[in-house]
Amino acid sequence: MKDFVKILLRFVPPYRKYLLLNIVFNLLAAVLTLFSFALIIPILEMLFQINTATYSFMPLGTASLKEVAVNNFYYYTQESIASMGAASTLALLAAALVVMTALKTGATFLSSYFIVPLRSGIVRDLRNFMYRKITTLPIGFFTAERKGDVMARISGDVAEIENSVMASLDMLFKNPVLIVVYLGTMLAISWQLTLFVFVLLPIAGYVMGKVGKRLKRTSYETQTQWGTIMAIIEETLGGLRVIKAFTAEDKVRRRFIDENQRFFNLSNRVARRQALAHPMSELLGTTAIAIILWFGGSLIIGGHSGLSAASFIYYMVIFYSIINPAKELSKAAYSIQKGLASMERVDMILNADNPVKTPDIPAPMPAPDSDIDLENLSFSYDGTNEVLSDIDLHIPAGATVALVGQSGSGKSTMADLIPRFYDPTAGRVTIGGTDIRNLDIAALRSLTGIVSQEPILFNDTVAANIAFGVDDATREQIVEAARVANAHEFISEMEAGYDTPVGDRGCRLSGGQRQRISIARAILKNPPILILDEATSALDSQSEALVQQALERLMQRRTTLVIAHRLSTIRNADLICVLHQGRIVERGTHASLMAPEAKGFYRRLVEMQSAE
């Protein structure tokens, strides 16, 4: 329950007025319930002649408020019987019981009415917090976490928190109020019996708490397994072409069936333990009633209690009324244990450390046409194996620098350090002499444009994808960017032109079309620093020619870092750096690296591609 209180302290403050109203109406409902039960005593005692005493009116101040209220209630009941008859008085008391019940149920409804915005608001805020955190976490976080599992946390786990924890808020804020009011009344009627109750209730709570802890542990395993299933589905949808090409349908199907069976077994264990809550609480409650009935009855029969038979019946009615809130409270406690397991998984994202942060007082942004320097730079993903080692590179403003080398040599990693997707483990990256770790991250990334090997398009229109990240772009600016990127012609031929949806990840377009829209997006952003990560390596010759022409227009008057797979595309670069095992082993122009006396890595790469 301590963890649940922490959740409330984190998320409830914006909705405290709803919580206050809920508590007020719960308290009112509890008091009205007591008054409706109190009508039972005169019905039993006076109408059926259990109490034959005569009452006279007692003014306020002559005794305690409780004694005055009880005495005068009996007095008016006797007067009603004398003047109207027993049957009419019974009807009057029954009508009063209906009115009290109507007021009680109205208060109960209002308590639930005001808890709804709190419950829904917390879940909405939780989803917003998670999505905001996901968009701010560094890329390195998602190399360690599977996308399917992250999706399961923001969907399945948040839904479980809504169903388990937030759905229990009404019970948690209502039932304790009812139990406290009822116990207070029981103390006023007979403190001896109530002390005996206080001994029994902690025992029942301890038994249910032990089962609840085991439920939380199993629920955590279940939600983790659900993340595994989501990851498998995400991988299957993304790799369906490969699965079919290698006729691996049976293999992936067996894998899914095995993991789904494990989820089935875990879900059964959770459901069975949760189903135990109601019968266990009912058994413990009935046992407590039987013990109290025996103990209280023995006191009355033996004359050791000042309690009358009618008062004892009223006491038992109130005690029995505690059973239902206690059962609901135990069910809520079980649900909370299940939801807290999901909250732990959600907190793994919400509390994830983000090492790539904007400093509290960012340094002034350097001029857009500033030089870029990588100084004595090293980087490791895991803190052990270095991907880059002792990199020193000067990139003059407006120059085109190409990075070449075998796969895994660190080319893309080096490029990722400039927009601070990662921070170096040693050394630094500077722009205009300023360490980029001292700059505002958003302002730094506004200087850079990226065109990658696999263009990322969103399931929106062509125009929206080109204008992505540029909120105030006009249609004329979008069209002009598309013209520069050699994309206007094929866009105009689409059924809705620039308003045509591109499909999921641009599935309705060819690879060359997707790449040209990606280039148009970079052109519209108009960044002073451009990173081209093998932007033409996956294209056919005709598409490559169109894309290369668009890239050359994009590169004009910009500082450009080109990661090249096809070396023919970088012959005119101002500087070519050859990486091997995370180090720059050669650098120079194409002419100098291909000079007759040159026998280095670059020459061998060019000759290999020429042979191919």
Q: What fraction strand?
A: 5-15%
The CATH topology label of the domain at 2-350 is: ABC transporter transmembrane region fold
Terminal Cα span: 67 Å
In angstroms, what is the radius of gyration?
37 Å
Mean pLDDT: 79
Order of strands across the biggest sheet?
A: 6-7-8-3-9-10
How many helices does DSSP assign? 22
The description of the largest β-sheet is:
6 strands, mixed
Structure description:
This protein is α/β, with parallel strands linked by helices. The chain has a domain at 2-350: ABC transporter transmembrane region fold, CATH 1.20.1560. Helix content is 63%, strand content 10%. It contains 22 helices and ten strands. The strands form two sheets. Strands 6-7-8-3-9-10 form a six-stranded mixed β-sheet, with helices on both faces. A hairpin with a 2-residue loop joins β9 and β10 (583-588). The longest helix has 51 residues, at 86-136.
